[in-house]
Specification:
Layout lengths: L1 H14 L7 H4 L4 E3 L14 H8 L3 E3 L6 E6 L5 E7 L5 E8 L36 H8 L4 E4 L2 E7 L6 E8 L2 E9 L3
Parallel strand pairs: 1-7
Antiparallel strand pairs: 2-3, 3-4, 4-5, 5-9, 6-7, 7-8, 8-9
């Protein structure tokens, strides 16, 4: 809990200069102002060693990303957090998905539970969204997506993200958020 509070306070300070303006006035359509984060991880900023301090070791695979990937599940087994690191062990992708990712091998399952991973943590403007949010809730909170890759795959860009190009893609299943992929560096 204290880790999340510290990260939240840091993010508030980062965005303080844009506070007097609405998101619509500082962000072009399909964009969100603010550094993306989930479980205390900020793509393009957080390193793999910081992920390990925040969430534990998880199931580590050295052959993912450039410098490794880690899988975490919540203690109830309702969601998966997959974190990929790239150059200099900086996190480039944070993937939040409902359920246990089928890519997690049976022998890795005992390594993935993290008591610090809360799948009910929120994201979006003012933390209004979560796994299970409806398309209507997403559109109300974030506006029209920058690009609808498919009917159930919407992409948003971010501004105010510490000069690192970051975007995120929301995947829907049966009209509800089923997966969110936060990406730094990728075009």
């Amino acid at each position: 809990m204290n880790r999340k509070l510290v990260v939240a306070c840091m993010l508030v300070l980062l965005c303080e200069s844009g506070r007097a303006q609405s998101p619509e006035s500082i962000s072009p359509p399909g964009s969100v102002c603010g550094p993306l984060h989930f479980a205390g991880i900020v793509p393009g900023v957080t390193t793999d060693s910081q992920v390990e301090r925040l969430l534990g070791h998880g199931a580590f695979r050295s052959d993912e990303g450039d410098t490794g990937g880690r899988y975490f599940t919540d203690t109830k087994g309702t969601a998966t957090l997959h974190v990929l690191s790239y150059t200099d062990y900086v996190v480039g992708d944070v993937i939040l998905s409902a359920g246990i990712d089928p890519a997690i091998r049976p022998n890795e399952r005992k390594l993935t539970p993290s008591k610090w991973f809360d799948p009910d943590e929120r994201f979006g403007n003012w933390g209004a969204l979560r796994l299970g949010s409806s398309k209507e809730e997403v559109q109300k909170n974030l506006g029209q997506p920058k690009k609808k890759l498919t009917r159930d795959e919407w992409r948003y860009d971010t501004t105010c993200a510490c000069e690192v190009p970051v975007h995120f893609t929301i995947f829907f299943k049966d009209g509800r958020v089923n997966k969110v992929v936060f990406n730094a560096f990728a075009g």
